[in-house]
């Protein structure tokens, strides 16, 4: 079964990347097997290989079939265009303030579609919409890459719920909502984290706590996993056995409990994997054919991949399978090896998070290219509290309607272990050198796989000292090598830099160095890239953090500046999520200062002038309410700049009358260089340099060629972060503004 699951997975990956190669390799294998059958067909091993290969070809067929289902003609004909009428069904709860939700497209332009997976982007929601509701959407469609598990993105200009959720989905959502309210009423990190730990509802979890949990690899606890399913089903089966229920009765009770739990927590990838695996295991026991864990996991993977081949590229599913495989294969030998240096009970306790971390680390570096040094201690300390949180969350949710008093008690009891887990995350994340830099991409995967392999081999052979030495060699070599580009860039960049643009992918992050400290404008939404840029600039603390507006590509990594920013300059928050973000920064020691047009901020040898928005509600929340600032130097050697946020053309036209009369050296182009720009504004600004923060090969077509061509015609030098990387500007001794960039010197 493991060989079949792995072979099927590889066939699916190849077919997703290139259907032609997938089919070609499959046919070549069939022809090769047929050619050798006359001579080797009598060998049992050869017959096994033939069967495995032929069965794995089902993965190729499933992938090709799903490809046509992912991209029906009614959608592909409208790819990249707007104004379309769609009907979608949401798969998760759309909470007030949410900007996106996973959906299935059911209809487009009046034609039925085969439940295509998509992400729906909306203006901040004002109502709570449970899973299963039908939503009518007017908006634009954009297809994703073949390697994206979600096939489409839908950008809604408006949306309306046209059919409520089914009674059982709405009922489960009411349970979650009531328990969330009662948990939040307990206060603190414990109350906010409890619904996330128990039910996967992270609505109340602050950005700072979420960031700390990622830093020490505790984030998996707020994604309901197989451990939660196993605990709930185990309790139900044990109670049934105590009451005298037979094997078949326990099976029925276990399956019904599992179905109810999946409905309550919603079918996330790890939950689906755990539910199918538990069902197969229960059925095997009921039929008197108990199976080994690896066989059950492999059969589960094979079935789920054939049902939806794009699970093969879904990170949540891949991580769930990898962690489970690591535990099934490595827990016993790891615990046995560790008993040589610690008591048996402690060895088993430490072995569980250790084998899981070793299994998933090569995958995690694709999402977060760092090595969490305190992941194992943090998970070891948090493990005893997880069962209590799961049980209290389940009891509190189920009893929320019929027995409110019991639900309140469950929330109060669950607050204690939840607070303990939050305290572990907070304290370990702030310990010295909580994580080390790591390689990006394939190099990072290979380095992490080498580290895991060294540790696995050495412990398997019971050579603990070799494991430690080998791990240290791999870690030191990787850290030194991965940090080398940053070190070289920091040594190469001019010491006298004044303005910097960070390469944070599809987002904005700028820095200005003044006589009183550093001002950072926006943060982007890629933590690793932001931290790398700050390292190149030599910035560890900032005096001012300006958040132009609250889109994630501008403020998504504000948590990086927790305890590192003295003052946060911001416009008006749009919703509860924005308020929570500011509250996190304030709790970390920052002073929050709200700005409007006409105000000034003294930055030492610079003055920050706020040009937009005005006190009057002329702009809608979001892009058109971005803070627009003019950075005016007091000395001739300074470099002036206007940063336009994400204003659209109409709002830019209103801004023209507010532009300063003084010459402007640099303009930060609005909205990553979208086509929605006022050419008159850029003529009025007349800046010789334009900065565009944009991600390479982004799906939005930024920057628009019409805009860059127009700027070229004005004689403006366009500097893009995707082409230049992190760059700096300063005025040289001759009075000319000098450029340094990571790519191009």
State the main characteristics.
globular; 745 residues; alpha/beta
Strand content: 15-25%
SSE-based structural type = alpha/beta
Rg, nearest Å:
28 Å
Q: Count the helices. How many?
A: 25
Using the alpha-carbon principal axes, give the shape. Answer: globular
Explained architecture:
It is built from 25 helices and 22 strands. α24 (705-713) links the parallel β19 and β20. α6 (188-199) crosses α15 (386-398), α8 (226-242) packs antiparallel against α9 (247-265) and α9 (247-265) packs antiparallel against α10. It is α/β, with parallel strands linked by helices and 745 residues long. The protein is globular, with a radius of gyration of 28 Å. The strands form four sheets. It has an eight-stranded mixed sheet with strand order 13-12-11-10-9-8-21-22, covered by helices on one side. Strands 14-15-16-17-18-19-20 form a seven-stranded mixed sheet. Strands 1-2-3-5-4 form a five-stranded mixed beta barrel. The protein is 50% helix and 17% strand. The two termini are 54 Å apart.
Question: What is this entry, summarized?
Answer:
By secondary structure, this protein is α/β, with parallel strands linked by helices. The protein is built from 25 helices and 22 strands.
Secondary structure layout plus pairing:
Elements: H1 2-17, H2 19-40, H3 44-70, H4 73-76, E1 84-90, E2 100-108, E3 111-121, E4 134-143, E5 152-163, H5 167-184, H6 188-199, H7 207-215, H8 226-242, H9 247-265, H10 269-286, H11 293-307, H12 315-338, H13 344-367, E6 370-372, H14 375-382, H15 386-398, H16 404-429, E7 435-437, H17 441-460, H18 464-492, E8 499-501, E9 510-514, E10 517-521, H19 527-537, E11 542-547, H20 552-555, E12 565-570, H21 576-587, E13 591-594, E14 600-602, E15 606-612, E16 628-633, E17 641-643, H22 649-655, E18 666-668, H23 679-685, E19 689-692, H24 705-713, E20 717-720, H25 721-724, E21 727-731, E22 737-741
Parallel strand pairs: 3-5, 10-11, 11-12, 12-13, 17-18, 18-19, 19-20
Antiparallel strand pairs: 1-2, 1-4, 2-3, 4-5, 6-7, 8-9, 8-21, 9-10, 14-15, 15-16, 16-17, 21-22
Helix pairs in contact: 1-2, 1-3, 1-11, 2-3, 5-6, 5-15, 6-15, 6-16, 7-16, 8-9, 8-10, 9-10, 10-11, 11-12, 12-13, 13-14, 13-17, 15-16, 17-18, 18-19
